[in-house]
Amino acid sequence: MLEVLNSPRFANCAPAAIHAQLLDEGRYVASVRTMYRLLQGCAAVRERRNQLRHPEYTKPELLAVAPNQVWSWDITKLKGPVRGTCFHLYVILDIFSRYVVGWMVAERETAELAEQLIADSAAKENIAPGTLTLHADRGSSMRSKPVATLLSDLGIAKSHSRPYVSDDNPYSEAQFKTLKYRPGFPARFGSLADARAHCAAFFTWYNQQHRHSGIGMMTPESVHAGRAAEIRKLRQATLESAYQRTPGRFKHCVPRQTKLPTAAWINPPVTEKKAA
């Protein structure tokens, strides 16, 4: 049977075609399935056409143990006044403190606007070369040459999510959800000025007033400025004072504050536990 399958006239034929041709000649050698099994047994079945193969993308594993070590940035759409129109919100977020270090609302998405925002944010935060990694998804602006050149000039390392893996950029995704699910977020914005005014108020609240569960119920600004430990001590003193006054309200011990996170991961290694 292998002699028939490996004969010169069938050298470039698939088993199904060989099977059909032999039947046309009045011959039955074996079923198509048996032909495949025999050919596979002698390593004669493989893809010979040129195939487009997707490259292997490494899972990003990024760790921040202090502010301004890893930033995450992304762009989301805000619906405009009429159907089919939108504005583009650019946001850069520090993953350790959750502090929004830069944002802008524009009528379009371009690499040049992203470049401007990144440069302004790095200057405002006094980022020294070699100290920061900027993580983003694989959007056209994120992978653009102007942005890549800027990051190289500033000494900022770049990192990208894997294609179609939303979990590789969780901090930006969560921040956008906080924005869009907050009461008062409009279904549409009447103008670019309206969108900018709304976002200005939101980011002021988010940075300065929002008690974030991922950073021990601190505000992003307090963590980013290094005041979280001091605030935690004051909170603990208040709890201890309450316990001394009315110990019966507590379960036989002094209540304790939520611990402050010591690290923020994007895709922690299997052996590591992601900080809350």
Task: Please describe the topology of this protein.
Blueprint: H1 2-5, H2 15-24, H3 32-41, E1 62-64, E2 70-79, E3 86-94, E4 100-106, H4 111-124, E5 133-136, H5 145-154, E6 157-160, H6 170-181, H7 192-208, H8 220-224, H9 228-245, E7 264-266
Parallel strand pairs: 2-5, 5-6
Antiparallel strand pairs: 1-7, 2-3, 3-4
Domain Integrase catalytic: 63-228
GO biological process, one term: DNA integration
GO molecular function: nucleic acid binding
**Could you tell me the radius of gyration in angstroms?**
29 Å
Class inferred from helices and paired strands? alpha/beta
Q: Please identify which CATH superfamily of one domain we are dealing with.
A: Ribonuclease H-like superfamily/Ribonuclease H
Apparent shape: elongated
CATH class of one domain: Alpha Beta
Order of helix and strand elements from N to C terminus? HHHEEEEHEHEHHHHE
**Strands, total number:** 7
Mean pLDDT: 90
Helix content: 25-40%
Largest sheet, order of strands side by side? 4-3-2-5-6
In the CATH hierarchy, what is the architecture of one domain at level 2?
2-Layer Sandwich
Low-confidence stretches: 272-276
What's the CATH topology label of one domain?
Nucleotidyltransferase, domain 5
Biggest pleated-sheet summary: 5 strands, mixed
How far apart are the first and last residues' alpha carbons, in Å?
Answer: 64 Å
Strand residue content: 5-15%
GO molecular function: nucleic acid binding
Protein name: Integrase catalytic domain-containing protein
